[in-house]
Amino acid sequence: MSAHKYELMFIADPELDERGLKKLTEQYLELVTKEGGSVEGVDYWGRRKLAYEIDGKTEGNYVVATYAAEPATSAELDRVLNLNESVVRTKIIRKDAK
């Protein structure tokens, strides 16, 4: 098994402040490092207007992170992000796919 490169984008609740957003992000990316993966970068895009309303929200805090991990770790990250009520949307893209 070898690690693959991924890009994670998630949209968090617009009510989260910067500290809360960073804490939330670090909490989830810790899952990657605990499983032997590596986080290559995190980019906080800040609060932006959503293309369409999601769960009554018109804005969200956008975060983009790049990391390397096993496919199972990525699947687990996606699963736990979807369980969190502070996370409005999530998308994980494998970057090294042919």
Automatic annotation (TrEMBL):
Organism this protein belongs to: Bifidobacterium goeldii
Biological process annotations from GO: translation
Encoding gene (name): rpsF
Pfam families: Ribosomal_S6
Name recorded for this polypeptide: Small ribosomal subunit protein bS6
Chain's role: Binds together with bS18 to 16S ribosomal RNA.
Family: Belongs to the bacterial ribosomal protein bS6 family.
GO molecular function: small ribosomal subunit rRNA binding; structural constituent of ribosome
Keywords on record: Ribonucleoprotein, Ribosomal protein, RNA-binding, rRNA-binding
Transmembrane stretches, start-end: none
Any coiled-coil regions, as ranges: none
Cellular component aspect of the GO annotation: cytoplasm; ribonucleoprotein complex; ribosome
